[in-house]
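Researcher: Quick sanity check before group meeting.
Model: Go ahead. Protein one:
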Amino acid sequence: MRTLLLAMACGLAAVPGRALAAGPGDPAPSLSGRVTATGGAPLPEVRVSIAEANRTATTDADGHFEFANLPGGTFSVSFALVGYAPEVRRVTLRNSPITLDITMRPSVVELSELQVTATPLATTPLTSPQPTAVLGGSDLRVAQAPTLGETLQGTPGVHSLSTGPGIGKPVIRGLTSNRVLVLDDGVRLETQQWGDEHGPQVSTSEAERIEVIRGPASVLFGSDALGGVINVVPKDLPDAIGRSPFVGGNFSASYWSNNRQPDGALLLEGADGGFGFRGTLSGHTSSDVRTPDYTLWNSSDRAGTGSASLGYRGTWGSVRGTYTYRLERIQLTDEDSLATPLQRIGEHRARIDATIPLGLNRLEATASYERNRRREFEDETSPDVALGLLSQNYLADVKLHHAPIGNLVGVVGVSGWRTTFGKFGEETLIPENRANNVGVYVFEQLEAGRWSLSAGARYDYRHLDVSQDDELGVAAQTRTYNAFSGNLGLLYRVAEPVAIVLNFGRGFRAPSAFDLFSNGVHEGTVAFERGDPNLKNEKSFNTDLALRVQSRTVSLEVGGFANIIQDYIFTQPVPGEIDPESGFQVFQTTQGNAALMGFESVIDFHPTPYLHFHGTGDYVHGQNTTTHNPLPSMPPFRATYSVRLEGHRAGVVTDPYLSAGGETNAKQGRLDPAEAEFFSEAFDGAGFQSQGYTLVNFGAGFGLQTGRNTVHLDLTLRNAFNKAYADFLSRIKTNAFDPGMGRTLIARVSTDF
């Protein structure tokens, strides 16, 4: 720590005669350069990004780019252009101009750009110390779906725990709910603690990319990042520094034929000097889903989201404010086809982000507020709230990116958040409570020749204050939890396109008030849920080993993992116990040690510029090592595969493609005994049995050049052969027979303006 403090002091004094940040008359750091192909020809339209500074520019006709008024410090600069391998350079900016010229080499494989979630200093998926995936660009455009879980369904190691089409909760390596932390541009969302089926209230329509960390990430994010992290990242807020003021935006719309679902998104943004603004609107509405054999009753949903951002960048730093509002109405399929339970959810989020350069150090601070109000109704005609849940969350995070110590860069931070929970309505599920959390952490990255090393450590403390609840039989009480977490990552570049990665991570999750004290009917999950007040912290130790290859024609990653969890918290149906008033199955929260082991693989192969093969495979083996039974709700083996023909520009037609592919899901034969008994009682004793299935998909699309902009048209035919199926991670598979969506044609149009 003493060495770190000395480095910070040296960073503050790195420029003689300078103050902590550039003052009047002092030149602010700037970065400029030229991007060329291997033969020396200039490359226009290259996207140049400084991820940690949230700045983006595009090269001009001569390949030039320029950034002015940058903060000091160490940054990763990425260069991306379709048809070329992305380049990444690490630069340290001082109060003087820096020139960075780049040569890009051709590549028919479209490689991912930077990720900013797994490490303080951005890395590529090839050089990340943890297994990561980035869904962006045209892949994200085509994958867009009403829920976050369904949007990420094709990502290796990621599945969706669904309660009909309106709720899709991401599952990473068999872990979900409060073990997978969802971030909205780096800020944690606290909307998932009330049950497995409460999905995150976040829209992906305006996202530039979605970043996924597979495995524990508790060092940077604290509790609930035990299984992984998903970060929905928007475009950088624009500025007009060094250019004329402007206004622009983009629009997208789609229609799903199966459930007659239109959706759309509009983004408007602009800038004048250092000022930038953005406003977004998005939403969708749907009718009931049609399976191959029948219409799935009470399965429609609708949602709408609006947001506004305003920011300013100057020589002293930057500040940005954002407000988001989201409304959802989700109907839930009960085993009674005449029942019409539903949820209504309102979500408010506000945040302020600030960055202040301090010589070669950089201070970043975020303060946010989130209010989530959830109302559950027994039927759509009822004016009375059956169960009302209100959560308010206050978060602050301050971190200092310290000056480089040789090749060592990193961050020291402190974060805190407070969650208050209130309830209303006819029923009660958990007592009112308040939780206060604080964590301190350090994370360092080192480049040493062929080696890349990363290491971090964190301490967290949580205080839970529970109010007396006579109806639930809970006395007023307090609980405290604390935990140490850490990680160590090693990456060795065997050759230019080949790397071996070994990562060790320790994560934790403190039990929520829902885990501890729930005791009642939960309409949103169609269950009677019962907690356990004696639960302890979940603690995990995860090991990852992976081989990565990225060449001109092949991108490959194959890896295995072992996640050993002590005091694993889970729910399971109590055999033969039904709540007499609601008729719902009773689910009991319990705890035991667990081991989750498995693998993930993904390959992209471009034998020619016109032909693209893509494939993934993943499997997780979950075992309760206390009872020696399989863990419940584990996804079975899954493989996805596609072949895509890609053409070149012909007149005003750009990027034409045709694709065919599918996914194969194996039967899940490993069941917890209580889970198996619950399945056997479904459908009046006829029972539910997991079956393997294959879905076939087709796609086509192209762009139309209209002046400087391109209109993209995409058609996707999902479940082309109208296969009847039940996803093993569907929570309604025991309420309705084979509830999977039948054949659907999705038409999309999108354009910038």
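Researcher: Fine. The other one?
Model: Protein two, sequence then structure:
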Amino acid sequence: MLKFPGKRPTNLGVQGGKLASCPSSPNCVSSQASDNHAIAPLRFSGDAQAALRKLKTVVEAMPRTRIIDSKPDYLYAEFSTALMGFVDDVEFYCDGTAIQVRSASRLGYSDLGVNRKRVEVIREAFDRA
């Protein structure tokens, strides 16, 4: 298997209640974007920290995933592709009313919708859990 992980971005994390903006390339989605990168946040009811713990369980169960950072209101994971080992950075931030999400490819320009599809798979599993 080939490996093309790229370098971990230095702009990740929460700054002023926001995840990093998406670049101009189409290989990123964010619930805090208002352009073609926009995707809905994950919704929950009840305790915010319990919701993020549930989300962490969902993410950990996904293949080729590694949790990099986990805090009571923030989760950061790396997802690797099976064939080429490309890495996508996926962040979740619980703002108290919803879980904001950002998923971005480290390398390349287009991801053929992989980041958007991944977030929707996570959303479905989160809603079922």
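Researcher: One line on it for the slide.
Model: Helices lie at 48-60, 114-128.
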